[in-house]
Amino acid sequence: MRAVGIILAGGNNRKMRELTQKRAVAAMPVAGSYRAIDFALSNMTNSHIQKVAVLTQYNARSLNEHLNSSKWWDFGRKQGGLYVFTPTITADNGDWYRGTADAIYQNLDFLRRCHEPYVIIASGDAVYKMDYNKVLEYHIAKKADITVVCKDLDAGEDATRFGTIRMNESCRIEEFEEKPMVANSSTISTGIYIIRRRQLIDMVEHCAEEERHDFVTDILIRYKNLKKIYGYKINTYWSNISTVDAYYKTNMDFLKPEVRNYFFKELPEIYSKVGDLPPVKYNPGSVVKNSLIASGSIINGTVENSVLFKKTFVGNNCVIKNSIILNDVYLGDNTYIENCIVESRDTIRANTRHVGENGVKVVVEKNERYAL
Amino acid sequence: MIKKEMIAMLLAGGQGSRLGVLTAKVAKPAVSFGGKYRIIDFPLSNCINSGVDTVGVLTQYQPLRLNTHIGIGIPWDLDRNVGGVTVLPPYEKSTNSEWYTGTANAIYQNLNYMETYNPDYVLILSGDHIYKMDYEVMLDEHKASNADVTIAVMPVPMEEASRFGIVVTDEEGRITEFQEKPENPSSNLASMGIYIFSWPVLRDALIKLSEQPNCDFGKHIIPYCFENDKNLQAYEFNGYWKDVGTLGSYWEANMELIDIIPEFNLYEEFWKIYTNSSNLPPQYISENSVIEKSIISNGSEIYGDVHSSVLGAGVTIGKGTVIKDSIIMQDVTIGENCVINKAIIAEDTVIGANVTLGIGSEVPNKDKPAIYAGGLVTIGENSVVPADVQVGVNTAISGVTTKEDYKDSMLASGETLIKAGERV
Question: I want to staple A264 with a disulfide (CB 3.0 to 4.6 A). Which of A195, B74, B281, B294 is the partner?
Answer without folding.
Answer: B281
